[in-house]
Amino acid sequence: MKSTFVLIVVCIFACSISLSKKFKEEEKPSWAKKDIRDFNDADMERLLEQWEEDDDPLEPDELPEHLRPSPAIDMANINPANPENILKLSKKGRTLMSFVSVNGNPTKQETDDITKLWQTSLWNNHIQAERYLIDNNRAIFMFKDGAQAWEAKDFLIEQERCLLVSIENKEYKGKHNRDEL
To answer: Does the predicted TM-score (pTM) go above 0.90?
Structure first.
């Protein structure tokens, strides 16, 4: 029983060695003959491509964002009078950042507290946004699904301390701002 197992393991090992793609020394490209310590970025990229050449292709949702196919937009169902809707559909599944300004003259801590509260409210409404402070009165809200940015904008401009929300270079004034722009 034990000898049969050992024989099977040896056969599998022998098959894997004989089926693996290996270059003979004279067939190797020049970059493969170099010492690994002398590899440059291009050599490492070729090595990675060679390593991954027999791998199964990744599913579209596993690909990096820049390699994913764009979402299909059905132009027949889009109202051309509402360009915001077209933007929202085109950003579905893509990362998008919006800039949010707090009115008044807040300290960095006050801005942090206010935007943290807004972020929590968005999360409670199933809108996932990461928040990064960039100034005493300004923060970036980053959305993994860009379509959610417009829903978040609708919430944010209703907030008492919201001065301005900027998405895709379009600015939306907060409804309670005191014309501080």
So the answer is: no
